[in-house]
Amino acid sequence: QKEVEQDPGPLSVPEGAIVSLNCTYSNSAFQYFMWYRQYSRKGPELLMYTYSSGNKEDGRFTAQVDKSSKYISLFIRDSQPSDSATYLCAMPQGLNYGGSQGNLIFGKGTKLSVKP
Amino acid sequence: EAGVTQFPSHSVIEKGQTVTLRCDPISGHDNLYWYRRVMGKEIKFLLHFVKESKQDESGMPNNRFLAERTGGTYSTLKVQPAELEDSGVYFCASSQGLSGYEKLFFGSGTQLSVL
Hints:
The complex is a heterodimer of chains A (116) and B (115). With 116 residues, chain A is mainly beta. Helices cover 0% and strands 53% of the residues of chain A. Chain A has no helices and 11 strands. Chain A has strands at 4-6, 11-14, 19-25, 32-38, 45-51, 54-58, 61-66, 71-76, 85-92, 104-106, 110-115. In chain A, the strands form 2 sheets. In chain A, strands 2, 4, 5, 9, 10 and 11 form a 6-stranded mixed sheet that branches. The mean pLDDT of chain A is 92. By secondary structure, chain B is an all-beta fold. Helices cover 0% and strands 49% of the residues of chain B. The model of chain B has no long low-confidence stretch (mean pLDDT 93). Chain B has strands at residues 5-7, 10-13, 19-24, 31-37, 43-50, 53-56, 65-68, 75-79, 88-95, 105-106, 110-114. The chains are: A mainly beta (116), B mainly beta (115). Chains A and B meet through strand 5 and strand 10 of A and strand 4, strand 5, strand 9 and strand 10 of B.
């Protein structure tokens, strides 16, 4: 079983739709959960992070963590064409063995397309 | 403020040749990371520098890969000799290294094609 699983999509939605993106993970030691957004031919950009369980909201974006199910979600409300990108979940695996906090394990990414 | 810059943006080489990738982190960032994405796979961690020291190189695939960060500023990643399976996008990232989670700032990557 992979440590982080993410459906690569692609996912196509109409403008204004609510988007739900998800990842599952297997290592219960993970404490930080991140969502990165990557536009075509660019590097990933940190969108949101959460610590432990619960919800975190930032504008149209909500990150949700359910540690009991090892399941994390990113919701995008009122999606816009500018949200079209690949969304990657990530967790700092380095913390589990005394390594670097910046040693992240990524999901494969879900490619999202928002149609006008 | 300039972001993380990587050079070249694309490199096409033949199997057995040597390639050197360069990364200039954000000024003042002590932490520098290298990641790689092979086609169809996840982005994977290669190594982490704190200033000029290698902090974590657990992701380096083999000894054909050599990373350096002389003077604690820019970094180079050399692949010698390159193999077909080394093709992919190599990302560099930097961070300030403050307490808590690490916010990484990524460059746009170097697309390496080994023919």
